[in-house]
């Protein structure tokens, strides 16, 4: 009888501990970090979705990219090799800001599951200027390759989404998605084996070269006076993306950190603000 009483007492204590305010507080804090992180996206997404500035910037960049691509195509034609352009997909051809808006409205942060669900809907809109650039590329006789870090499970949805806009080269040979590495070097090299790549467009530095983000764009670059290489100036156009990307990772001591409290802290510390 005494043992039974002791067991009952232990179960009661364990039950109380499981529902303790401390545990609830930890869960609340975790939820709060998600909400704080997603709330920090609000102004970026509003700018991306509603500002005239962003539309004009995208159109201007694509107009400049079209000129550079045309000049380069004329220059490289003498090589007699097939020529190509490479475009990233997300925030380069397709606008995924409604997914970011969903995260903000629900106090959530990115997960591969919710991202795949958005991608499977296959109804992202086009980035302003992208269709004109791609049409001009085909008029010049260039092949168009789409190199993206979407996973291959999303190939069919990605093709459906791009086909909405009658874009050319929407086939598995021209859409190179992520297998095991997010680094795009290998996929670029694969294209370069058979084609001269005359121009690339992306929203991340890694859409053109994998190394050198900090070398060319890091905080100390201005002081060191490092010049951008000609290949970068003449063969790549970079579109705006204030919602996510290399810039957000570059300020973290560990770019792969998942510690949300730390991310919030470092973001604030990294700001340049008067006292
Ligand atoms: Mg992108």
**Oligomeric form of this entry?**
single chain
Shape: globular
Taken as a percent bin, the fraction of beta residues is 5-15%
Work out the radius of gyration: 24 Å
Query: In terms of per-residue confidence, which ranges show pLDDT below 50 for 5 or more consecutive residues?
Result: 7-19
Derived structural class = alpha/beta
Ligand roster? magnesium ion
Mean pLDDT across every amino acid position? 89
Spatial order of the strands forming the largest sheet: 5-4-1-6-7
Please work out how many helical segments DSSP would assign: 14
Distance N to C terminus: 68 Å
Number of strands: 7
Order of helices and strands: HHHHEEHHEHEHEHEHHHEHH
Largest beta-sheet details? 5 strands, parallel
Percent of residues in helices comes to: 40-55%
3D architecture notes:
It is a single chain. This protein has 275 residues and is α/β, with parallel strands linked by helices. It has helices spanning 2-18, 21-39, 42-50, 52-76, 97-105, 112-121, 130-139, 155-163, 185-194, 213-217, 221-224, 230-235, 246-250, 260-270, and strands at residues 83-87, 94-95, 125-126, 143-151, 175-178, 196-202, 236-238. It contains 14 helices and seven strands. It is globular, with a radius of gyration of 24 Å. The protein binds magnesium ion. Magnesium ion binds at residues 88, 90-92, 202-204.
């Amino acid at each position: 009888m005494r043992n039974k009483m002791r067991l009952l007492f232990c179960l009661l204590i364990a039950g109380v501990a499981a529902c303790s305010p401390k545990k609830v507080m930890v869960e609340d804090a975790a939820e709060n970090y998600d909400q704080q992180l997603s709330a920090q996206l609000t102004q970026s997404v509003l700018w991306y979705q509603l500002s005239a500035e962003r539309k004009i910037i995208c159109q201007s960049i694509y107009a400049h990219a079209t000129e550079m691509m045309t000049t380069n195509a004329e220059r490289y034609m003498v090589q007699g090799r097939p020529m190509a352009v490479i475009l990233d997909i997300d925030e380069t051809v397709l606008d995924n800001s409604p997914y970011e808006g969903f995260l903000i409205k629900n106090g959530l942060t990115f997960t591969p599951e919710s991202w795949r669900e958005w991608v499977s809907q296959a109804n992202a809109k086009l980035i302003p200027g992208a269709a004109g650039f791609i049409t001009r590329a085909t008029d010049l006789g260039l092949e168009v390759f789409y190199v993206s870090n979407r996973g291959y499970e999303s190939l069919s949805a990605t093709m459906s989404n791009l086909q909405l806009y009658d874009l050319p080269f929407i086939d598995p040979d021209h859409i190179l998605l992520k297998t095991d590495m997010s680094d795009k070097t290998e996929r670029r090299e694969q294209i370069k084996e058979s084609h001269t790549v005359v121009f690339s467009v992306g929203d991340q530095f890694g859409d053109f070269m994998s190394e050198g983000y900090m070398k060319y764009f890091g905080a100390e670059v201005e002081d060191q006076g490092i010049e951008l290489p000609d290949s970068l100036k003449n063969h790549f156009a970079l579109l705006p993306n204030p919602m996510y990307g290399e810039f957000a990772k570059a300020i973290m001591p560990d770019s792969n950190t998942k510690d949300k409290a730390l991310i919030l802290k470092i973001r604030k510390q990294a700001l340049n603000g008067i006292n």
